[in-house]
Design goal:
The radius of gyration is 13 Å and the shape is globular. The chain has a four-stranded antiparallel sheet with strand order 2-3-1-4. 19% of the residues are buried. It has helices spanning 13-24, 41-54, 69-73; strands spanning 2-9, 27-31, 34-39, 61-67. The chain has a single domain, classed as 2-Layer Sandwich (Alpha-Beta Plaits). The chain is an alpha+beta fold. Helices cover 33% and strands 28% of the residues.
Length: 94
């Protein structure tokens, strides 16, 4: 499984909700527009394809930032606490 931060900037509220729901199917919300996604290569392609269909390519942006387990273990937060990464977390997509 690979880990990614999926970050997005969506200009339309309706598309924003759809993108957020799609990301919730694959990962965990870390901030309002940031998700931690741990997926197989196949599911990563599915997620990218889904988001590609949902966004306006001229107005919106989605970033897929690959991260390693070492990076996840060194994550720091200021302010409101964040949940620690758990290597045993599993996402089930139906």
């Amino acid at each position: 499984m690979d880990s990614y931060l999926v970050c997005y900037d969506i200009s339309d509220p309706k598309r924003l909700r759809r993108v957020a729901r799609a990301c919730e199917d694959y990962g965990y919300r870390k901030q309002y527009s940031v998700f931690l996604v741990r997926v197989s290569a196949t599911d990563f392609v599915r997620l990218r394809s889904c988001l590609y269909e949902l966004i306006d390519l001229n107005a919106d942006q989605v970033l897929f930032i690959p991260i390693t387990d070492a990076c996840l273990n060194r994550t720091e937060a200021l302010g409101r606490p964040t949940e620690n990464y758990d290597a045993n977390d599993v996402v089930i997509v139906l």
